[in-house]
Amino acid sequence: MSGNISQPLLIPSTERLLRGMITALDGIDSEGRADIRHVVGMLRLVVQHLIRRESLADFVSIHSEIISLVKESADLLDLPIDGGLPSSVSGTFDDIQQAVGQALDQLNKIAAQVDPLDKGFWRKTQDVERRFYAALLPVAVIESRCAPISITSQRFETYLRSRFNNQYIGLKSFTKLVGGFQKETILVEALKADNSVDAVVVRAEKNDRFLKHTASEIDDEFEIVRLMWNAGIPVAEPLWIERDASALGSRFMVSRRAPGENAGNAVGSASKFSRDLTQSFLTNLVGIHNIKVDDSVAITKLIRWMGHKTLADNTRAAIDYWRNQSWLATAPASVTFSRVFKWLEDNVPADDGKQCIVHNDFGPHNILVESGKVTAILDWENVRLGDPADDLAYFIQCGGSAIDAEDVIKIYSDLGGQEISNFRLKYFAVFSCAKVLAATLSATTMYQSTDPALIDWVQLPIAWHGMFQQQVEEKILAAEACR
After folding, report:
1. Which of 1, 35, 82, 456 has the fewest Cβ atoms surrounding its Cβ within 10 A?
2. What CATH number should be reported for the domain holding residue 317?
3. Per-residue pLDDT at 238 exceeds 90
4. 19: which residues sit within 8 A by CB, 6+ positions away?
5. What is the domain-level CATH number for residue 213?
6. Does residue 269 have a pLDDT over 80?
């Protein structure tokens, strides 16, 4: 045998092995199983991310640019650089990633000394950060998400029989619904002795270490949904709550299934919402905002937000809440994160309104519609007292090309909503980006530090940070232009 034969050619490259994994994952039969399809999709995303790591040149180049920015900025401001920063790096992806993180940390410290009006500096630094996250982004991102079910159909059927003295004789269906990071959502069709069917939705707490620090408790969500139901807001009728986690492995609430389907699916993701449907959205948003903040509100978790004397105080408290999420203490440095929260703190709108109940995730993705009307508003886990402009700005952002922003603002006002200045709307458009950055950086640290951690969280830092990070400066400029 010739000594020139290269034996390593007989061994598949790392990239080839990873692409083989994708081929294998694509061959798994998940017909009719949204849960299996989701897990396969998330595994595929992870493999794509590992393939992307095989190309290190982009990250080496970005590191070099960050080092140049650090040195240039430090010289201009006459600031020392902590420790030694190598001008070039090599090694594994993890070695280079660590070096980039150290360089970003230095850049973040320098950014704290830079004039907020130095637009050139912010453009340069944020462009480098944008390209860093773009380099991490795989070719495709799987949007659907759900976690493994902990509550089983057999256990739930036994629970129903016991709770209702055998009024139910079995389950016609037990289906995990895709969507929602913070809770498990399961559609159950329960068969009664007279052969009628009760369709209910179970919302259960997840056994995830990250969520135990961040998610609302099921008691809070149940009380809020009941408050909305009693106020005439279209929600899924709350039936009961099970506070004993030992019954099925986690605490849960049960609501009657609401009619309709997700607004985006019902209309078509590329279609514009009709004026009647837009008016229905906003009628209900105004209805939420106009609920009287009284004793019925004080017995819910909203009491935590009732101590602020002014709307500006409330907004500052919200800034602190998002900026000081528990997992952010060890999150990777982000100039954009520091910049956006400093801007929010320095530009809190004047007290030209009153605080009210805000849904805090009011978008078409959380609304069911039927025959052009809203039938149910979902996902109340993030509700708080705050500025109505927060909800309105978020709805406009989520509506995208399906709505006309100027029409939305006028309809909201005509329906009896608070008068909201253009600056307040633009301010909370910036705030929406800040919330996403807080979530993505938290998820980065959580996913790296906890075991086990739901694979769902891997898509936050990979996909969303880069997407929203690059919007920050544009939204800040839009807000400053309408003062």
Report:
1. 1
2. 3.90.1200.10
3. yes
4. 47, 51
5. 3.30.200.20
6. no
